[in-house]
Amino acid sequence: MYEAIVFYAFGAILVVSGALVVTARNPVHGVLFLVLSFFTAAAIWLLLRAEFLAIALVVVYVGAVMVLFLFVVMMLDINLERVRQGFWRNLPLAAVVGGIMVAEMVAILLRARFAENVQPLPPGYSNTKAIGRVLYTDYAYAFEIAAVLLLVAIVSAIALTLRKRKDTRAQDVSEQLRARPAERVRLVSIPAERDS
Fold it and tell me: How many domains would you assign to the chain?
């Protein structure tokens, strides 16, 4: 009963935070709600005893969201001073999001005390091994397609942000290799001056 209540509570938080990601007008608020939705999804994975997926979701996606946010700030040339000025204005929302994350983790930790009918896993069971077996056998083609799409996304992001600066000089290696010492150094003979 406890697991069902926690699952539906986390599911409701996930749906609401996902909707707020799309509808938030302030990009900082949108990113905070996105972090909350990822964290809630990780808590649901913990309820399903998939610890590796939960940790990977937090480490990869929450970290990637911050990198994505920085990428957007650099791409759009948002004035960072204005973003810093809104820190205190955004602090209450960030505190609420952080409080919800802490409450979710407390609920997960209390599961062991209040949950009924929790079946122990067999000895030597590893959910990472089970995920790897399914991922690389049943879903191998989908995994490879996702890898290619991520590679294309990385190359596209680099191509979009690559800018040529006019104040820098580029080296031409072929011109440097064609250079001869006689062309580069010129000996000048200057007659010596005599004091009169």
Answer: 2
List, in sequence order, the alpha helices (H) in 24-126. Answer: 27-47, 51-56, 63-76, 80-85, 87-114
Domain extent, residue 53, equals 1-119
Predicted confidence (pLDDT) per residue in 106-154, tens digit? 777 676 666 666 667 778 777 788 888 888 889 899 989 999 999 999 8
CA 190 to chain centroid: 66
Please indicate, yes or no, whether the overall pTM of this predicted structure exceeds 0.85: no
CB 33 within 8 A of CB 21: yes
Which residue in 57, 5, 6 sits closest to 36, CA to CA? 57
Q: How far apart are the first and last CA of the chain?
A: 113
- Would 187 be classed as within a structural domain? no
